[in-house]
What we know:
The protein has 200 residues and is mainly alpha-helical. The protein contains 7 helices and 2 strands; from the N terminus they run H-H-H-H-E-E-H-H-H. The protein has one domain (2-199). The longest helix has 29 residues, at 171-199.
Amino acid sequence: MLLFLEISSVVCVLAYLFLVSKQNANAWLLGGMGSLFSLIFFYWQHLYASAILNGVYAVQALLGYKTWKQANQALKPEYRWSWWIHLMALIIFVLAAVVLNQQQALMAWSSEQHLWQFNTLYLDVLIGGLGIWATFLEIRKDLSCWWYWIMSNLAYALLYTIQSFQGSPMYAYTVLMYFLFGFSVYVQVQWSKSAKTTSI
C-alpha cells in the first residue's frame, strides 16, 4: 500500500513538473492529486508535518488551478515581492520550527542503535513553511518561488535520506527530491527566459 502511494505520488509530481514548466494550468490538478497521495503516505510514516503540508498543497492546488485558468495569459513570471518580505517570511519559518519543537532536542542519543539521531521534526516544520510560501508565490508566478523550491527540495532530499538511514525507508521520495532540486533550477531558468521574452 505504501509503495503504491509513493509511486502514484511521484508519477503525479513528475507530470505536474512537466506542465508547470510550460505554465499549463492543468499542472495544478496533477499536483493536487500527488499531494493527496503524499498526505496519506506521510501520515503512515509518522511525518505529520509533511502530511499536513501536503493537505495544504492540495488546497493550494485548487487555488492555483483557478488562478492560472482565469489569468494564464495575463499573468507573466516576474519578481513581485521586495527582499524584506522574503526576509520576514524566513524569520517566521525559523521561529515556528523552534517554537513547535521547544520540548525536543535537535539531536538525541539512541541507546538502541548506539548513534546520534537527528530530530527531523525541526527540518520538517521549517521546510514545510518554505513549501507553503513557495506555492503561494508560484500561484502568482513570482520568480522567487523557484529559489525557495531549490532550497526546500534539497533540504527535503537530505531529510528523507536521514529518515531512510534511521529506519523509515523512503527511497522513491528521496530520489524524487534530488530530481526536483535539479528540475527547480531548470524551471527557474525557463521562467526567467519567459519573463525576459515578454518584457522585450
